[in-house]
Structure formats: structure tokens, C-alpha cells
Amino acid sequence: MKIQNLNYTFIWLMAAMMSLTALSIDAILPAMGLIRAKFDIEASSGHWIITCVFFGLSAGQIFFGPLADTIGRKPVALIGIALFILGNLISFFAPNYIFLLLGRIVQGIGASAPRVVSQAIIRDISSGQTMAKMMSFVMTIFIVVPVVAPVLGQIVIWLMDWEFIFILLVIYSFLIIIWLTCGQNETLKEKRPFNFISVTYGFIEVFQNKITLVYLLTTGVIFGGLVSFLNMSQPLFQETYQVGDKFPFYFAGTAMIIGGSAMLNSHLVSKINLQVIVSYAFLWVWAWSALFLIISLIFNELNLVGFIIFFVPTFAAFGFLFSNVNALALAPMGHIAGTASAAIGTCSNILAILIGACATYFFVSSPTPLIVVFFSGASFNIFLIIALNQFKLKISEP
């Protein structure tokens, strides 16, 4: 598939499918304080509202990825979206915190299917720089969701109760079902058997490929920084920096930064080697985080303006990492795209959850733990890609 002949309706659909995960997380962020108050939950336990989605996402991909290589991409996506709707209804009617978290897990399981399927479909029809460029376009559109979702969630809270955020997600899910059913053909050409042995061999192949394994770990560490930010963002902005109802707009600004850099990345990937872009992005995150870690330790605090100065350039680098690292991880796995997407997604999510949980544990009304996560994560990733001989700084490389 040539970039100039890209079907942008297809790109919007892939972004919409991927966005179910982001919507289920970001739309609920303005309500986290209200949820803790309703169910009398301490702030330290509030992160489960987000973490449970990632648990479901990790578990679901193990099943749905290999299944997408067997029965097809579309049927798996439709099953997952149906489960996502069920999870939202459970959360809407939840009589207590446990049932709410159960609904969140089901949401994550359901959202895992369209997420892994969208990546598999893109891999079915593209590879290499073409795939990276497509993923950048998808990521750019996908970033609109974190921009809009917290604002929509806040509007729902202003007009109705926070529970109706889940009803909004149900309506959106039905629209995607109609769009997917009518607007996308099946892309799976060669079916694989769905059994324990086949799935096991697929996962083993992913872990035996050094390139895929390294970028799997890299993806998890990058995503761990994002999960840490998601867990800390609401108490950091609303409780530490006292921004009140303006929090969704600060969060939307973060998403816009990533989206802008992802759009720029979509133009660069056809001119600059993917490894070069990734290497410079990691170097930037490492250097910028190191600077602000020193500032934070010396002055023992970082005010709102200082934190904004830190996270704007840091999150800009993320737009050059998400799609490129994912494309590099999937590049050798075209023959088992569904299973590989599941393995990469599941393992990177588990790693991200662990990183996010550790960072949240040390969070005490300060952004310092978040800065530590970005600095240590960039250091680890630079070490990995150097060990893989993928650390390249010559921009002239094709």
C-alpha cells in the first residue's frame, strides 16, 4: 500500500477502534475524586480505577490476538466491543467499589480486542516505514481522544452524574460496531489453528526474536511512564497544584502535544531511519528528565509552571516513540501479526502496570517520582537499543 493512496476513512476507523482504551481511561479522570468520595476510598486506592482497565487489557490480548489469527480480524473486534459495552453497563449500575472495578476489568478485556485487531490489520496491509507512517497518522487522530475525553467527562459531570460517562462510552461503541461492520473488509489471508500449542509457539517466536523482544520491553517502559502520569495526573493537578475544574484542559494540552509530534513524525519516517528518530527521542527524554530531576532534588519542589516546562518537551518526544517503536517490534512478525500484537501488548502492559504502581506508591504530592520514571526509563531503553546495535544517530541514513 502506498502512502499517497491511503484510505483516510480506514485510518479514522483504526484510530476509533484503538481509542476505546483511551476513552475508558481518560473520560473518567475528572470523576476520580467523586468516585473515591462516593465509595469512601482513600486516595492511595484510587489508582485501581485505572489499573483494572490495564489488567483487563493485558489478559484480553492473550486470548484475542491468537483468535484474530484464526477466525479473522472483524469477528474478534466485534466480540471485544460487545464485551466493552457490557463492562460499561456493569460500571454504570455498580452498587459498590468492587463491582465498579469488575466493570473496569471487563472494559479492559473488551477494549483489548479492537486494539490488537487494529494493529494486526495495519500490519496485514503494510510494513516498515509505510507501517510507521500509517501508525503515525492513526496515532495523530487517536490523540484527539485524550484531548476531548476528559473535557467530555467534565461536561457530563456538570450536566449529570459521573456514572453517565459510561453511557456515553456505550453509545460510542455502538457507532464503531456499525462503522466496522459496514466499512471494513476482512484482511486475514492465512488462518492459523487456535490451540494451546499454536499460541505457545507464537509467543515463543516473539520472545526468541531479539529485535521484537527489545522493542517489546522498550514499549513497556515508555507506556509505564504514561501509566504513571495517568495515575498521578488527577491528584497532582487538582490537589497539589489546585487547578480545580481546569484539570481536563491541562490533560488535553498534554495529549495535543503528543498528537502534534506524532503528526510531525508521520512526515519524518519516510525521510529518516526509524532507529534514528527513536534514538534522538530517547536522548532528549533522558537529558531533559535528568535536568529537572536535579532541579527537583535541589529545590525540593516544582511549581505548576516548572512542571509544565518539564512535561511539554518530554511528552513531545513520546509522539516520536509510540508508533515507531511499535512498528519496529512488529516488523519481523508479519506472519503472526495478531499473536505478536497480543504478546507485545500483554507483556508491555504488565511491565507498564508494575512501573505505574511503583511510581504511584512513592507519589506524595510531588512530581519527582514521575520525573524519576522518565529518567530511569529513558536510561534503560537507551541501554537496550545500544545492546541491540540499533542506537543510530546518523540522520542521513535511509
Shape: globular
Query: How many domains, in number, for the residues?
Result: 1
Whole-angstrom Rg: 20 Å
Tell me which CATH architecture applies here: Up-down Bundle
- The rounded distance between the terminal residues' Cα atoms is 19 Å
Poorly predicted tracts of residues: none
Q: Please write the CATH class name.
A: Mainly Alpha
Account of the protein in words:
Helices cover 77% and strands 0% of the residues. With 398 residues, it is an all-alpha fold. Helix 10 packs antiparallel against helix 14 and helix 11 runs parallel beside helix 13. The longest helix is centred in the middle third of the chain and has 31 residues, at 210-240. It is globular and about 55 Å long.
Set out the fold topology:
Layout: H1 8-26, H2 32-38, H3 48-68, H4 73-92, H5 97-125, H6 128-142, H7 144-159, H8 164-183, H9 196-208, H10 210-240, H11 247-268, H12 274-299, H13 304-318, H14 322-330, H15 337-361, H16 368-387
Helix pairs in contact: 1-5, 1-6, 1-7, 1-8, 3-5, 3-15, 4-5, 4-8, 5-15, 6-11, 6-14, 7-11, 9-15, 10-14, 10-15, 10-16, 11-13, 12-13, 12-16
Brief overview, please?
This protein is 77% helix and 0% strand. It is mainly α.
Features:
mainly alpha, Growth Hormone, Chain: A, 16 helices, globular
